[in-house]
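Continuing the series of single-chain predictions for the mutant panel. This is the parent chain; the variants come on the following pages.
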Amino acid sequence: MESYTSVKGAIELPEATIDLAPQVPLERLRRHPLSLAVGMFDGVHRGHQAVIRGALEKAKLQGGVPGVLTFWPHPSRLFRPEEPTRMLQPVEQKRERLFRAGMQLIIWKAFTRHFAAVPAEDFIRLLQESMPGLKSLHVGSNFRFGRGRQGDAEQLTELGRQSGVEVVITPRLQHEEEPISSSRIRECLEQGRMDLVNQLLGYTYRSRGKLQPGRRLGRMIGFPTLNLAWDPELPPRRGVYVVGIRRPGEDAWRPGIANYGIRPTVEKGPVAAIVEVYILDRDDVAYEEGEELELAWHHFIRGERKFEGLDALQQQIALDCDTARAWWQQQG
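Parent structure:
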């Protein structure tokens, strides 16, 4: 992947960073039409994926470049800095997910007061001036734009017609008779409803953390754990989950259980929440302190709670392992 602040003759948008997928030459941006999906795309969930597919299909028909215009940080950090919207994934995972969805180009626009003040009627003109190859815009039906979020999908369509830019509006997807949205996924994540989180995302929720030394209490009770430092903007509900673990880039996942929380049975004072992972079928794979590991979060088992002692904790972990093994067996 290559990053640029502009691509002369193709993309010159102020206060933006451009990520180009590997094997995509700069000259392609200058010579081929651009199909651009626009939105925050936090989580890159199934609804976002539908918008992105529209850009991919249009680019394929026109022999063009499929790209995304998105924003980082979230606009709420400008308007509500004391209570910003917490993101489902860090920027690195969002980038990876967008490229995996087939985007060849990601434009990260800083959401500044100047950009927020652009009148809705000037939005497409600004994009055309910055991206002369722009041929189509792809947004969700709830997309808002322009000063005070006054512009909507209907106005965008009319502005596109006047400007010669095709505007494709993707209807919101429903799941269990409710719209799929990032805010709905955030709520489910905080409730520990991981099965539903994954259904709404269209893939398994993932995290990455670095291996850090622990107190080896798990080893004392027969359940040695890998302790991962992890500090997400929006953490899931504290508790025990069925997970898979691997090194980033590996194909195979090792089944395990993970406790995310503050370990109230063994910790007496305030501590930072961490992830403790027990691999169900231990093997001879050795992990090194400081190494980054990736988790796939599949299913919520129970909430975190304080036990009377290590014996009670040991018995519960054994039950949690049985639950996890049964879940994995059901997956075939």
